[in-house]
């Protein structure tokens, strides 16, 4: 299954991103949760504003859908600066980055999403630009090529990455502030759902907001998406009000269960428990059994199942925890490991 086709996917396509625009908080006070990052960032921004200089470069790391782009927008907003958005994969050549850098105005915020996917030559150009506000533009080709240094006005890079570990140390070191975003608690997600419902003009009951929050896998993007599906259901089958019944019915239609697992997650757990007696079993065997690509199971279902304590990765393969058996309504074998124990991780 295409990841973005899943209602519980943490990723978003272009259409969804444009739908999300209306739901983004526009300042730090409206940004729910992530208390530590919010406090630290607020200090960095206030100090820079007080000094009248651009703040240090900011690196935001964490899984998709937790608010990195939103925070970048808030940073620009709080600084009263212009935000320029691009991403690692969009920059194919160093020249693409040179063109962006040389068009920046003083104090601009340059948001570089998926910064870990920048090509090496662009990465090296970025080091120089971040450190010395300078870029070397190469003119001509081959032996006749010359490099012309161009100075840039002071600006701030906000880099976002889902894989902070992949960033080379020299790049990581050029960020004066790094904030790591973590999965949200249910009460924070509930606050986001209530706020988003208000923005969408949907009347929502508190227990319905809680129901949506608890099935959203700790991720605001998923919470907002489930809210839109509940709104659809309420408009088509109900009275337009998102009450608990509407929430439960809609999420049943989309096969998202009370712990946030969808059809693929449950298929993986079921295969693990019933076909392989709880494992250990290799990932590719498991993927073939559920009729999916290995990569889909590895990147889409497994991280959530491991995080929730349903599955464990061991050197001999994947195993189901006691919680997995219980969640499927099955009796765990006597030697099943507890949900929290998690086995020994091998990577
Ligand atoms: N703390 C928050 N409070 C309220 N809404 C939030 C919060 N964090 C994220 N959202 C909402 O969740 C959606 C996804 O957020 P965002 O696009 O910022 O995530 P992201 O981490 O940049 O994702 P990606 O890595 O896929 O680019 C947006 O609609 C945003 O408004």
UniProtKB/TrEMBL annotation:
GO terms (BP aspect): DNA recombination; DNA repair
Pfam families in UniProt: AAA_lid_4, RuvB_N, WHD_RuvB
Domain AAA+ ATPase: 54-187
Any one GO CC term of the record: Holliday junction resolvase complex
Start and end residues of each stretch annotated as Small ATPAse domain (RuvB-S): 185-255
Sites where the protein binds ATP: 23-24, 65, 68-70, 131-133, 174, 184, 221
Reaction(s) catalysed (UniProt annotation): ATP + H2O = ADP + phosphate + H(+)
Localization (cell): Cytoplasm
Coiled coil: none
GO molecular function, one term: ATP binding
Keyword terms: ATP-binding, Cytoplasm, DNA damage, DNA recombination, DNA repair, DNA-binding, Helicase, Hydrolase, Nucleotide-binding
InterPro entries reported for this sequence: AAA+_ATPase, AAA_lid_4, DNA_helicase_Holl-junc_RuvB, P-loop_NTPase, RuvB-like_N, RuvB_wg_C, WH-like_DNA-bd_sf, WH_DNA-bd_sf
E.C. number(s) listed in UniProt: 3.6.4.-
Stretches the record annotates as Head domain (RuvB-H): 258-347
Main subcellular location of this protein, as a coarse class: cytoplasm
Binding positions (DNA): 313, 318
Stretches the record annotates as Large ATPase domain (RuvB-L): 4-184
Residues reported in the UniProt entry to bind Mg(2+): 69
Superkingdom of source: Bacteria
Subunit structure: Homohexamer. Forms an RuvA(8)-RuvB(12)-Holliday junction (HJ) complex. HJ DNA is sandwiched between 2 RuvA tetramers; dsDNA enters through RuvA and exits via RuvB. An RuvB hexamer assembles on each DNA strand where it exits the tetramer. Each RuvB hexamer is contacted by two RuvA subunits (via domain III) on 2 adjacent RuvB subunits; this complex drives branch migration. In the full resolvosome a probable DNA-RuvA(4)-RuvB(12)-RuvC(2) complex forms which resolves the HJ.
NCBIfam families, sorted: PRK00080.1, ruvB
Family: Belongs to the RuvB family.
Domain comment quoted from the record: Has 3 domains, the large (RuvB-L) and small ATPase (RuvB-S) domains and the C-terminal head (RuvB-H) domain. The head domain binds DNA, while the ATPase domains jointly bind ATP, ADP or are empty depending on the state of the subunit in the translocation cycle. During a single DNA translocation step the structure of each domain remains the same, but their relative positions change.
Functional summary from the UniProt entry: The RuvA-RuvB-RuvC complex processes Holliday junction (HJ) DNA during genetic recombination and DNA repair, while the RuvA-RuvB complex plays an important role in the rescue of blocked DNA replication forks via replication fork reversal (RFR). RuvA specifically binds to HJ cruciform DNA, conferring on it an open structure. The RuvB hexamer acts as an ATP-dependent pump, pulling dsDNA into and through the RuvAB complex. RuvB forms 2 homohexamers on either side of HJ DNA bound by 1 or 2 RuvA tetramers; 4 subunits per hexamer contact DNA at a time.
Name of the protein in its database record: Holliday junction branch migration complex subunit RuvB
Organism name: Demequina mangrovi
Gene: ruvB
